[in-house]
Design a protein that fits this description.
Length: 211
């Protein structure tokens, strides 16, 4: 997991550029689901729609080839962000934290000013974080909530603050009972990210090679 204290930055363009972090469920148990979080599904179709939006934005960029190459495993990257957003919402709800429309608008305007305008902000997020233009509001919301969570918990940019944030987010992640379709990997509650998924038969082959 990217260190959580890096998400708890003061409101700035740099804050918006901070990338998202990142029990397996078989497709037979949840057909059509990329993940199931607290009983609610993230549909494969919804994940693919996000991927298509990003690819379309990348293809329209003068740096198309470079951008696409830098986000080769975009399915996993976007699913990781979609799941992490649910964890952020859980932590915020548990601590009575909300983000008003005014706060979100002001944060986005501030970030746009610091990057030279909305077009520059969109280009920067697409390049550095694989964010499509219509996803910018989601990024803004995530970071406003992260800022407020860190402030409420008194989690400063110290090892102690990092540990406190990690413990809170890990507990929320476990409470959400996150299941991921094995084709995308497995969710690690302790690291609060999508980790590598290895099927049991792959592990068995690995064990045999060691003997």
């Amino acid at each position: 997991m990217h260190r959580l204290h890096r998400r708890a930055l003061s409101v700035s363009a740099a804050l918006l550029v901070a990338g998202p972090l990142l029990t397996a469920c078989g497709s037979e148990a949840h057909p059509g689901a990329a993940a199931v979080i607290d009983g609610q599904r993230i549909e494969v179709a919804a994940l693919q729609a996000q991927v298509r939006d990003v690819r379309s934005a990348q293809e329209a960029s003068p740096q198309a080839a470079e951008l696409i190459k830098a986000t080769g495993d975009l399915n996993r990257e976007k699913l990781n962000g979609m799941i992490f957003d649910r964890v952020v919402e859980k932590v915020a709800t548990d601590h009575g934290i909300t983000a008003s429309r005014k706060e979100l608008q002001e944060t986005r305007r501030s970030a746009a000013r610091q990057t030279g305008g909305e077009e520059q902000l969109a280009a920067m997020l697409l390049q550095q974080q694989g964010v499509a233009p219509d996803e910018i509001d989601d990024v803004v919301r995530r970071n406003v909530l992260m800022n407020k969570i860190a402030e409420k918990l008194g989690a400063t940019n110290t090892p102690e603050g990092q540990q406190k944030l990690t413990e809170v987010f890990a507990a929320a992640s476990k409470a959400l009972d996150i299941e991921v379709n094995p084709r995308y990997g497995a969710w690690d509650n302790d690291k609060i990210q999508l980790g590598e998924y290895r099927a049991p038969w792959i592990r068995e082959l690995g064990d045999q090679r060691q003997m």
